[in-house]
Amino acid sequence: MLRSSTSASRVVLGDLGVVVLAIAVLAAISIPSDTSGAVFLGIMVLFLLGVPVTAALSGMSVLVEQYRWLQIVVTVTLVLNAGVVVVGLGLQIAG
């Protein structure tokens, strides 16, 4: 089933809303006790990187939903990534 452009844009905007809400909650909790400004800088970086990356990943998820070959590519990539993480953790624990 293909999504309409309105439906796809709602998915992307919904994902962006969740990211902005999460950053706002983090800011509301941590900024009042921040004396050095490090939390404020971290929240600025989260916002500047998080919003574009979330929009790109959300748009990609809409595309992946439509194309079978792209589902296979993303699945293989995620499995390889999980394998690398497990091997890395094993090497770190052993070393």
Based on CA atoms alone, the radius of gyration comes out at 18 Å
- Strand fraction equals under 5%
Count every helix, treating DSSP H or I runs of 4 or more residues as helices: 3
Sheet of most strands: none
The number of E-state strands comes to 0
Shape: flat
**Approximately how much helix is present in the residues?**
over 70%
Show unreliable segments.
none
**How would you state the average pLDDT, rounded?**
85
Q: How many angstroms separate the termini?
A: 49 Å
Structural class: mainly alpha
Q: Give helix and strand order, one letter per element, not per position.
A: HHH
How would you describe this protein?
It is a single chain. With 95 residues, the chain is mainly α. It contains 3 helices and no strands. It has helices spanning 5-30, 38-66, 68-94. Helix 2 crosses helix 3 (68-94). It is flat, with a radius of gyration of 18 Å. The mean pLDDT is 85.
